[in-house]
Amino acid sequence: MQIKIRSGGHDYDGLSYLSDVPFVIIDLNNLRSITVDVQNETAWIQSGATIGEVYYNVAAKSRTLGFPAGVCPTVGVGGHFSGGGYGTLLRSYGLAADQVIDARIVNVDGKVLDKDSMGEDLFWAIRGGSGASFGVVLSWKVKLVPVPPTVTVFTIAKTLQQGATELVHKWQDLAYNLPKELFIRVIFDVVNANDNGDKTVQAAFNSIYLGSVENLVSLMNARFPELGLESKDCTEMSWVQSTLYFNGFPVNGPLEILLDRTQAKRFYKAKSDYVKVPIPTVGLEGIWKRLLEEDQPVVIFSPYGGKMSEISESATPFPHREGNLYKIQYLAYWEGLEETEKQLSWIRKLYRYMAPFVSKNPRQAYLNYRDVDIGQSKNGTATYLQGKVWGGKYFKNNYDSLVHVKTKVDPENFFRNEQSIPSVANA
Ligand code: FDA
């Protein structure tokens, strides 16, 4: 039987709760205590907590501490931290996994180990290398990060008719080179162009700045005047309120909304890419053309640079560091099961179209945006070479080190799934 480990259940392709072989689920849903130590700026967080619960509990103790994890509050800590975990503080502080300073894991012998007893290489592997290949992570000790009492947010949306293409073209290497306190992502969707039912692509520049409106507006006027940012477009708020803002919740509403663990239920498929060289205008126009063929497409460009460029590719298994201008996430949403094939075919076609514009050899992908299209093995029984098909994309050269750790700590491949790290003990 396969052992499935589930914390928040947000795996994009359901590897924590689906398989075509018999399996049992170890569900950490109820293991979710969070202990915040303000004096030492650390927290112990159990894997079944959500990141919304983390933000809520940190904010309840301090207005000037935050944590650099994902945007959606219902995401579970177990999968998120063990796969990387990024959000709006990415350029200032890197990933959630970069802040982990201790952890407790149940290994294949049923022993509970901490950082010292699990050893450096296993501790390295679970911070971005997919915890589920190595054991059941029970809890994580993390460093919290300083945030100013007031941050500034804005969203400016431009359609193609309003010059979105030129702005996005400039944004590509600009956002990467901005001061690390400024994070501007771009979210693309399809909207009405006019009252006649014509459609257009809209690019929403969605941003947080760890500083005041005044400083932000002068920085933007110097570096990105084409966007035309003015003070009236900006709102100052606490960092925890910004977590509401990025989810479209009312920022003056109760923070308890971060504790709601209900996951939206809808059909979707996602994929990811990394961009190292700005995409030419003609390439961007090809994306717009494909988005306009679709009912509910969403594409998100998230800038890297800043702290992400300061961390070496092998510091953790997550290798997508310096030189990656931004990450792309493609998403297709749909309403009924009968539309599935059509939607999958659309997103795969878009992914094929993007090949010349994105990272190559390997074509990199983000583990937490799980995508079984890039390779999988039935029942997690891949060989080293089979596993490299997806492992090389998620982990680049760190794949070999992950195989080494796996072979040492779980030679019989007890912990496995369709994209797990193989053991080469019997090869
Ligand atoms: P789930 O429980 O499904 O686990 C995911 C994987 O981790 C599975 O392989 C599972 O076996 C393994 N695992 C889980 N708990 C484990 C444990 N305790 N020990 C060992 N292995 C364990 N990502 C991001 O970086 N930034 C973002 O802003 C978002 N936003 C976002 C929004 C929404 C709506 C979704 C659905 C997903 C995201 N993600 C994201 C992706 C998210 O980070 C990714 O899906 C995480 O793996 C989810 O972790 P869960 O614990 O919720 O998932």
CATH class of one domain, anyone? Alpha Beta
CATH architecture field of one domain? 2-Layer Sandwich
| CATH topology value of one domain | Uridine Diphospho-n-acetylenolpyruvylglucosamine Reductase, domain 3
Give the biggest beta sheet. 7 strands, antiparallel
So how many helices? 13
Main-sheet strand order equals 13-10-12-11-15-16-14
In terms of DSSP E residues, the strand content is 15-25%
N/C terminus separation: 22 Å
Q: Residue share in helices? A: 25-40%
* Rg estimate, integer Å: 21 Å
Overall number of strands: 16
Q: pLDDT below 50 for ≥5 consecutive residues: which ranges?
A: none
Family: Belongs to the oxygen-dependent FAD-linked oxidoreductase family.
InterPro entries: BBE, FAD-bd_PCMH, FAD-bd_PCMH-like_sf, FAD-bd_PCMH_sub1, FAD-bd_PCMH_sub2, Oxid_FAD_bind_N
Protein name: FAD-binding PCMH-type domain-containing protein
Cofactor: FAD
Describe this structure in words.
InterPro entries: BBE, FAD-bd_PCMH, FAD-bd_PCMH-like_sf, FAD-bd_PCMH_sub1, FAD-bd_PCMH_sub2, Oxid_FAD_bind_N. Belongs to the oxygen-dependent FAD-linked oxidoreductase family. Its cofactor is FAD. Residues 1-147 form the FAD-binding PCMH-type domain. The structure is a single chain. The chain is of the alpha+beta class and 427 residues long. It has a domain at 2-146: Uridine Diphospho-n-acetylenolpyruvylglucosamine Reductase, domain 3 (2-Layer Sandwich). It has 13 helices and 16 strands. The protein has a seven-stranded antiparallel beta sheet with strand order 13-10-12-11-15-16-14. A hairpin with a 5-residue loop joins strand 6 (100-106) and strand 7. Helix 9 packs antiparallel against helix 11 (340-354). The longest helix is centred in the last third of the chain and has 15 residues, at 340-354. Dihydroflavine-adenine dinucleotide binds next to strand 1, helix 2 and strand 8.
